[in-house]
Specification:
Blueprint (H helix, E strand, L loop, with lengths): L4 E7 L3 E8 L6 E4 L3 H14 L2 E8 L6 H19 L8 E8 L2 E8 L5 E5 L6 E2 L2 E2 L2 H13 L2 E8 L3 H20 L17
Parallel strand pairs: 3-4, 7-10
Antiparallel strand pairs: 1-2, 2-4, 5-6, 6-10, 8-9
Helix pairs in contact: 1-4, 2-3
Length: about 200
């Protein structure tokens, strides 16, 4: 496969987001979003997915993090979609169940071209660090929509919000790593009975 890289620059009156996503990397990341907890989660995505990921974002955080988080999700999704190209020869599906101490989260993804997000990831507090808990599903929905993928996230166990969130991003990383991986059994064809994705 050719280099699978997606690069996006999204600039609005509210935010300025740059994303560079290499699918066949080594887990290196350069993350600076202005939201510490989000930085930490995107570092997990890169490391545990084996992706090379750069996310540099600035936004109107003096209002609240909503615009910044949303535009990061949209930009990540566009970069992933670009990196996948025509999606021929990939596994397409991936799932992972990841523990972090008392927390256990399952994530399943389908890169079949149809966006959908089913997020069952409750939090006890309104904020996790500087990240509003209500923005976590919105981030994942924005990612799914622009990446043209289906994502299901389920909290199976856990009391600590940080652990719940981190287990979710580690599981997402592992599920995506499986889904984007080349699968020689398809012989370079689309992993779909339709012949295209």
């Amino acid at each position: 496969m050719a280099d699978r890289v997606g690069a996006v620059h999204r600039q609005t009156k509210e935010t300025d987001v740059r994303v560079h996503w290499g699918l066949d990397g080594s887990g290196r990341s350069e993350i600076a979003t202005g939201i510490g907890m989000l930085d930490h989660m995107l570092q997990q995505l890169a490391r545990h997915g084996g992706f090379d990921l750069t996310v540099i974002a600035s936004g109107d955080l003096h209002i609240d993090p909503h615009h910044t988080v949303e535009d990061i999700g949209l930009s990540l999704g566009k970069a992933l979609n670009e990196a996948l190209g025509d999606r021929r020869g990939i596994r397409r599906f991936g799932d992972a169940t990841v523990p972090l101490d008392e927390a256990l989260v399952q994530v399943a993804v389908d890169l079949g071209g149809r966006p959908y997000a089913a997020i069952d990831l409750p939090f006890a507090a309104a904020e996790i660090g500087e990240l509003p808990a209500a923005l976590v599903p919105h981030l994942l929905e924005s990612l799914a929509n622009e990446a043209r993928m289906s994502i299901h996230v389920r909290l199976l166990a856990g009391r600590n919000d940080h652990h719940r969130l981190e287990a979710a991003f580690k599981a997402l990383a592992r599920a995506l790593a499986d889904a984007v991986a080349p699968d020689a059994r398809y012989g370079g064809e689309a992993p779909s009975t339709k012949g295209v994705i």
